[in-house]
Amino acid sequence: MWKVMLGSRETEVEENSTLLSLAQKVQGEYAHDILLASVNGKLAELNKTVTDGSMVSFFTAADKPGIQTYHRSMIFLLVKAIYKVAGREDLDKVLVDFSVSKGVYVDIRGRVTVDAAFTGRVEAKMRELVEERIPIDKRNVSTDEAVGLFGQYRMHDKEKLFRYRRVSRVNLYRIRGFEDYYYGYMVPDTGYLKYFKLYPFDGGIVIQMPVEKEPEVVPDFYPGEKVYRCQKESSRWGEALGVDTVGDLNEWIVNGSVGDLILVQEALMEKRLGEIATQIAADRKKKFVMIAGPSSSGKTSFSHRLSIQLRTLGLKPHPIALDNYFVNREDTPRDESGEYNFECLEAIDVEQFNKDMTELLAGKTVAMPTFNFKKGKREYRGDMLTLGAEDILVIEGIHGLNDKLSYSLAPEHKYKIYISALTQLNVDEHNRIPSTDGRLIRRIVRDARTRGTSAKDTIAMWPSVRRGEEENIFPYQESADVVFNSALIYELAVLKPYAEPLLFGIPKEAPEYVEAKRLLKFFDYFLTVVSDNIPNNSLLREFMGGSCFNV
Q1: Which fold has domain 66-223?
Q2: DSSP string, 291-342
Q3: Does the CA dihedral 472-475-480-486 come out positive or negative?
Q4: Alpha-carbon separation of residue 135 from 157, 162, 188, 380 (angstroms)
């Protein structure tokens, strides 16, 4: 018998037994299915053999590594079912594109009509495969062999991706003869993949899957039309330019054309900013531009660049940071852990904000506050403001789209903007890049530069940040007049040399090491772009430094 440490207790296992057999032995101690393990601080699939003296812990779908494994395996099952139902010869591409509702939108191209009937057949095939509990096998092949295989499979995005991999070997996964590549780990067999629902949507399929909070519950499908249209427009723009996957981006870098790509992307963003400014200026009743978005969306740079565009149209914009209306520190609400909750609406002096805004709208002169974060108090330093006919306020903060914040202001005076970094780049056709990963990388780089915060601490507080977004930002995104995508198609290749040293600095024994290692592996797909060609007014400068704005 071999001895292993399972959490804080020692247990015995048969020699050469698998993590799966140990997981089955202790499954009753867990509220949800065990999906993945950690062995001596490194993630491991359950099919891996246990070694004597190992330190083992398990993850379920209630944990981030577990739910990521569940989602990834579910996408593999979906792709397998689509190819089985449609037939490989009738498919040009199955593109796992971006998040919609609590699911993922999958664009299916070829000689296939994607309607309710087709979606029903795919879902039925998936449930059939789940019932059969088919093993998800893994094999290790050379990178050259992988390139050849995916050329044969007509998965040309993967073929291109592996041409730029430095590693000599890669892992391929298989469900009963259907082989594919995925970035990350898989569950042992299809029987684990019980919770999902498919919906036909806009010529494709949305697969709804559980989230960490409720691992056995498939959320209802509520597509956000405005955010979806913005995502689709960004994705199609990248595709039209020939840069919709990491392999495409690497090709631009190798060919020496990435400078042109940067200029085109920045020009497109400036054009979009100009269009928004024109819409605002066309309605002279609009006096309050309300900007909101999740963490690291680039709200500050966006508000500066929008203000410049408004000036070109004869308006006089004044930036207002909602943070200056924080209540004093001793009046700040606390969360369930007893920590200050700076992200709830009650952390803002809503009454004072509405009083000031209504007086400004009435033509009165108002003393504008500044919040002293060191003292935790709101201060008045003689900053006076009066709104004339050409003046307009550009208000930025996480509650900007919540009408409870600006309850005294009539809708005709407000123009609402939702901004987020909606990543338009995929690793390949079946491996999407979550927008949350892009924003986390931005924040790691910015926090280290501007606040001296370690990558370890930024990763540790990210779940709390995400909870605040779910409660205070995402419910209001569809109320916006316009959705703006701040993601730059080239940005991850630029941020790579800034983020990698910070992630390497996280010690192996730290709880955040697993996430750091995942992000480091992710960066391996990218060639590096030097920052010299990034304009100093680029939104990306807010994170990497060198901006012409005070950000």
Answers
A1: Threonyl-tRNA Synthetase; Chain A, domain 2 (3.30.980)
A2: EE-STTS-HHHHHHHHHHHHHHTT-EEEEEEGGGGBPPGGG--B-TTS-B-T
A3: positive
A4: 26, 26, 6, 66
CA distance 194 to 216: 8
452: left (phi over 0), alpha (psi -120 to 50) or beta: left
Give the three-state DSSP class for 231.
Answer: helix
Alpha-carbon radius of gyration of the chain: 25
Q: What digits encode the pLDDT tens for the residues 329-373? A: 999 999 888 888 888 999 999 999 999 999 999 999 999 999 998
Q: Could you please report the per-residue DSSP string of 49-82?
A: BP-TT-EEEEEETTSHHHHHHHHHHHHHHHHHHH
Euclidean distance between CA atoms 322 and 334, whole angstroms: 19
Instruction: Return the pLDDT at 550.
Output: 86
Nearest to 253 by CA among 544, 489, 528: 528
Going by C-beta distance under 8 Å and a sequence separation of 6 or more, which residues neighbour residue 361?
A: 287, 387, 409, 413
Q: Cα separation of 156 and 224, whole Å?
A: 31
pTM (whole model) above 0.85? yes
Max alpha carbon distance in the chain (Å)? 83
The residue ranges of every structural domain in the chain are 2-60, 66-223, 231-544
Q: Which CATH superfamily is domain 231-544 in?
A: P-loop containing nucleotide triphosphate hydrolases (3.40.50.300)
What is the rounded distance in angstroms from the CA atom of residue 263 to the CA atom of residue 270?
Answer: 10
Tokens encoding 262:
């940067």
CA 154 – CA 177 distance, rounded (Å): 16
Fold of the domain built from segment(s) 2-60: Ubiquitin-like (UB roll) (3.10.20)
The residues near 72 (Cβ < 8 Å, ≥ 6 apart) are 182, 183, 184, 185, 186
Contact assessment for residue 194 and residue 133, using Cβ atoms and an 8 Å cutoff: no
Token couple for 300: 């500050």
Selection from 421, 419, 427, 440 nearest residue 97 by Cα: 427
Same fold, 66-223 and 231-544: no
Q: What is the pLDDT of residues 71-130, one digit of tens each?
A: 999 999 999 999 999 999 999 999 999 999 999 999 999 999 999 999 999 999 999 999
| Contact indicator for 4, 53 with CB cutoff of 8 Å | yes
Give the C-alpha distances (Å, rounded to integers) separating 467 from 344, 350, 493: 11, 22, 28
